[in-house]
Amino acid sequence: MIRFLVGRLLASVAIVFAVATASFLLLHAAPGGPFDTDERRSPAVARAMEDRYGLHQPLWQQYGRAMAQLARGDLGASMKHDVSVARLIAEHGPISALLGALALAVALVIGATLGAIAAWRRNTWIDALVMAGALIGVSIPAFVLGPLLIAAFALDLGWLPPARVDGARSLILPAITLGGVYLGTIARLTRGGLIDVLDQDFVRTARAKGVPERRVVGRHALRVGITPVVTYLGPATAALISGSFVVEKIFQIPGLGTYFLTSVTERDYPVVTGVFVCYAALLVVLNLAVDVAYGILDPRMREGLP
Amino acid sequence: MTAGAWARWRGNRMAVVSGAVFVVVAAACFVGPAIAAALGIDATAIDTELGASPPGAAHWLGTDTLGRDLLVRVMIGGRIAILIAAGTTAIAVAIGVSYGAIAAYAGGAVDGAMMRVVDALYGFPTLVLVMVVMAVTGTRSLFALFALIGAISWLTMARITRGQVLALRRREFVDAARALGASPARILTRHVLPNAAGPVIVYATLALPQVMVTEALLSFLGLGVQAPLASWGTLVTEGSTQIVVYPWLLVGPGLVMAVAILSLNFIGDGIRDALAGTERGRHRAIRAPQGRSR
């Protein structure tokens, strides 16, 4: 187990550096530099700015510097605004993380419950209704759902604030919008996983022992049947990050996604690479956690670990 | 698709209705604008006098803020959305199938390394990478959009194909082909891949709606289809900014897009169930019957 974890951890670090390398090369291969503007600037000023960021050095030197910085945990500073990337992430990251966690919670709790009900009442009208609902939910993109929710609950009914952050209430609609997209997928995965498990021997044993059906489904079967959902958590978080750009734009939340989009259009190299590496690190850690969670959920998996 | 699977698909009412709905939507998108033009509705004619008007007899989905007929714009946008989805899915299938087939056929360390790459990309925000590429290269061409979305959508396809090829390459007819002196490339393309087509078709159908959402999402963020052209994504974007004053600008395009995506999802699910029916039937025959079924 420990060997497995150490191996995966080393692989994770390698992935993060690969991502950093890829984004470094990409940004430098792109036409146009960070100081290309319409305003006229004397050659001396341009020189000074390029000197400060080492832009005239050969590529491999710039690369070496960037990687050495990263290895020290230094993500550099913005070229457009007087702020370090680490500070940007520290300031705007938490609100995005909170939004993502809320969205995931919404999707997991409601999705897994609906999926379990559908599996339990498999091939009845309840099952058909839940699965059709899940498919409809999957088919409504966040950028359609979000504005509609604003129109209905914020503007028409006036129950919730339409945008901006002023307390937890303003995060309810964004979390539903962001989580709603995955809710259907999670319900379908839970149903599929549970149906596979419900036919297995240990479930039959539980039933034979006289465990009530609700407990058989909710405890014995769900614990193993939920593994497809756990597998999906990695891709779901990746999708959550892309989704956060949309949701933060719709609800005007000053999160990390908003800043990433701005820095992408501004060609603010250090911010783009810094935030990108930060996203990659987050996902790598999460995927590692998913692997560990397998062993905890399904004891049979523990032996399978290399 | 075998005759049995086709019969099962036709027995799935939701799938058949969705198939019909999608054909109607697609047909309307491709011929609708021409019919509208024949009837004297010009989608590019700007009528600022009229401005945004709600749905009515003259304009079924209303008009946008420049007085252009929204229905025609939705149809033209659908054309681009469907074309991008089809082209991109084709790219994703091409990459995924060849990658998965090569990995499975090579086997051993090559297979292991190739699939680790897929694993790593799976948990990766590939869409973010596309955004970075679109933004830094400043490219706004439709072709780049095709290529980029295709380049991130092949992962599942590669896994599916690999699984299929792994199972198929041990079969007797493959041994027979090898014994007859067929080259690996010929065995793969003529003997193995045609037999792996079923699951590939299923995932291609299910990839279509996903790719459609990806395109719309990029357009929503301002990185996708650009101004003189319109896709469902750009129409929805316009609509979402006007939701307070002119709600029909979002509801019309949003609804059409959701219906198209939903029907594609139902079609794909139907095909999967139809093909799985054969598999499941076989398994049932082999495994002892499970008395309990709820």
Number of helices of chain A: 13
What is the CATH C-level name of the domain at 69-260 in chain B?
Answer: Mainly Alpha
How many whole angstroms does the radius of gyration of chain A measure? Answer: 24 Å
What overall geometry of chain B do the principal axes of the alpha carbons give?
Answer: elongated
Helix content of chain A: over 70%
Number of strands of chain B: 0
CATH architecture of the domain at 69-260 in chain B: Orthogonal Bundle
CATH topology of the largest domain in chain A, anyone? Answer: MetI-like fold
Uncertain spans of chain B, ≥5 residues at pLDDT below 50? Answer: 279-294
Mean pLDDT of chain A: 77
The global form of chain A is flat
CATH architecture level-2 label of the largest domain in chain A: Orthogonal Bundle
Tell me the number of structural domains of chain A.
2
- What fraction strand of chain A? under 5%
Question: Based on DSSP secondary structure assignment, what is the total number of beta strands of chain A?
Answer: 0
Output the helix-strand order of chain B. HHHHHHHHHHHH
Structural class of chain B: mainly alpha
Sheet with the most strands, sense and barrel status of chain A: none
Order of helices and strands of chain A: HHHHHHHHHHHHH
Structural class of chain A: mainly alpha
Q: What is the terminal-to-terminal distance of chain A? A: 8 Å
